[in-house]
Amino acid sequence: MSQNLLFSLLAPSRKMEHAMQLALILLVSAAMVVGIDFIGDGRLHGGALIYAAQMLVVVVPFTLMLRAISDPLRRLQHRLDGVQNRDPLTATYNRHAFTRYATRALPQSGALLMLDVDQLKMINQRLGHDAGDLCLMALAMKFRESTRATDITGRLDGATFAIYMPGAPMDIAATIAERLRGGIQVTTADGLLHVTVSVGAVAADGMTPLKVLMRDASVALARAKLAGRGGLILHELPAVA
Hints:
Strand order of the largest sheet: 2-3-1-6-7
Distance between the termini: 51 Å
Shape: globular
Number of strands: 7
Largest sheet: 5 strands, mixed
């Protein structure tokens, strides 16, 4: 069974939420019937009381049952959402989720960073994929530490990441990119390893499609890679030294 099908089967449905709302409405209606009947002549009539009691017997357990089912399924929905949207190694968004969330944020101007781990292929070949994976996980942690809570970070493919920064002017984006391109140091079986990151950055005006921004950021990143390890290019602006 695919993740999407499992998600759709187990996620709390709108029908369940509507049923809970209906149950509450019926409960309130029963109370109103008793209240109106009492106000009419100052006496409680047996028929109204029986109707109210029937509503209570049916509605209260039904509402509690739906709540008991809905809450665990909502938590499961949140977990499945994480499985679907996250890269399993770095816990950043995968390409699909990054594209979706970044597109939603595009009406707000900001900046897009595209980052590539320098010489990751050589690290995998020389030290093994475990060392390469360790570098990626450490870098993802640095991304989380260096960016803002509102920034959207995704792993696009093996060594390439993207960060969309809603509302960030290019000087702020350049400061964060400067911090990130220094990379990280990790300890492997062969000793201390320093890994740098090349960065291409473009400004987002709130109207340019994400596809165009990612294309321009890729061009800037390619220029940064040509400049050497830890290179940084701001699109249509001089490189930050």
